[in-house]
Amino acid sequence: MIHGVGSHEAGSRADRRYLDAAATAPLRPEARAAMIEVLDAGPANPSSVHQAGHRAQQTVEAARAAIASALGARPGELVLTSGGTEANNLAILGLALAAPRGRHLVTTPIEHPSVLESCRFLERVHGFEVSVVPVDEHGSVDPAAVGAVLRDDTTLVSVGLANAEVGTVQALPEIAAEARARGALVHTDAVQAAASLPVSFGGAGLSAAAWPGAGIDAMTVASHKFGGPQGAGALLVRAQLRIEPLLHGGGQESGRRSGTENVAAIAGFAAAVTASAREIGTRALALARSRDELVERVLAEVPGARLTGHPTERLPGHASFVMASASGESLLVALDAAGFAVSSGSACAAGKDEPSPALLAMGIAPELAQTAVRFTLASPLDGDDVERVVSVLRSEIRSR
Q1: Tens of pLDDT along 289-301?
Q2: Residues 210 and 344 in one domain
């Protein structure tokens, strides 16, 4: 256990608590074992015709089938990528450029940079128009607002299932219905949500409240959010849709993504997704209980603390705050010194001095947005952990 909280001294590595799972989840033992097995088998390129190459190709296809099965898709609907950023780029650029019925895109201001920058690229280079639908103070997207900007030439709507910074889960079934009624394709970045919520690309066996299922044309996931290795991900895309590849070369992934496959990472990805799917329901309940305890204590005992994101429609292990009269950087440093690894928001924005665009889009003032602190749980906290987190926050704020 961590001692010396009053002096903000960190304990040993074993004492530390990792509360930044939204940035990257701890590597699962199943993923580590699967990767080691591939690495120990020796070198092999899946495109080679010898026995070693055939073995590697079998590993890739078995992994593809396992990931697809866990996410309610068919193996042929899964394009393996280097991660969520590439998959988002492939979805937006690939679908928009392959067979556009027009040059109009719809998204929101709180999407991952890989979504927003892909839309801006299409706008800047290919003459697309982009409608950015506003969000409310909780980071929620109104499906009717999406419907209001749709046009007959809208090619694609891209709205993330859950926001990485504040954890808000969107009403994707209603948003998808609006888009489909006007004939637009729908993409969702499910990188943050898929490891925490019962996500199914096909929607079979799940209520609309849990996941939209039918109506989604493309979905992004990333290995390291499930507890797999970094550097692997996938785009799930309806088999009948044309998609323009980003990477041209050897024609891997049925011509949709060229490049020699990272067999070990793909195997680890599959092992992590499979393990996650087995426990996702019970794990979500346990994380939500722990999250609620943390939120309740922080709001009650830390002066100036305010929860960001939707109060109830949020990821189960996600608790994010802004702290009036505090320095976000000093809070992160104090928590880290006390043995708690947390963040201020999206890992892709780490090290930037500007306030979060997502928080600004929610109407939070710039100076308050810069005090953001995000706790994302890989496992439930115990009572002592919650007590120590609250103590550090309270002490740091009162010392200013």
Answers
A1: 999 999 999 999 9
A2: no
